[in-house]
Amino acid sequence: AFEAEVLHTVRAGRLLPPGAVVAVGASGGKDSTVLAHVLRALAPSLDITLHLVAVDEGISGYRDAALAAVRDQAASWGLPLTIVAYADLFGGWTMDAVARSTAGSGRSRSCCTFCGVLRRRALEEGARRVGATHIVTGHNADDMAETVLMNFLRGDAGRLARGEDGDGAVAALGPV
């Protein structure tokens, strides 16, 4: 029933055209795992190719177990996996290094602000590496609502005014 609803939504919205190469943002969490599982089941019906793309932010003790879970999923599902590390993409900078650099600097932005921007860039780079035409993530409507609320509470008008459209290089799909 759930998979049929997803299939209907994808087809009705023309979200993933036949032949699409889809980079699935894989964090090792439940949302991205369910997304990858469902898309894997639907891939033959949709005529799409899937690649898992994971991001290693370089936060000590934070991502190791999740990346191990993603590696296991990729192996058991027979899906290709690309891991993009901040250290490789950003000239040796990791989130640990960013946190050290910004600590006590008087900057008002939290590490989460930097990490979100860098993670998005790393995911886009992973999608580029695998030749993806589309990026999908396990973000859901609650995640989006939380982001809007946090930006509102911070008074971050620039982020509130920003649209969802990117530069068009790779189509990114939000919650369905």
UniProtKB/TrEMBL annotation:
GO annotation, cellular component aspect: cytosolic tRNA wobble base thiouridylase complex; mitochondrion
UniProt-recorded name of the protein: Cytoplasmic tRNA 2-thiolation protein 1
Gene that produces this protein: Ctu1
Gene3D superfamilies assigned: HUPs
Source organism per UniProt: Dipodomys ordii (Ord's kangaroo rat)
All residue ranges annotated as the tRNA(Ile)-lysidine/2-thiocytidine synthase N-terminal domain in the record: 22-159
Single GO molecular function: transferase activity
Record GO biological process: tRNA wobble position uridine thiolation
Top-level taxon: Eukaryota
Keywords: Transferase
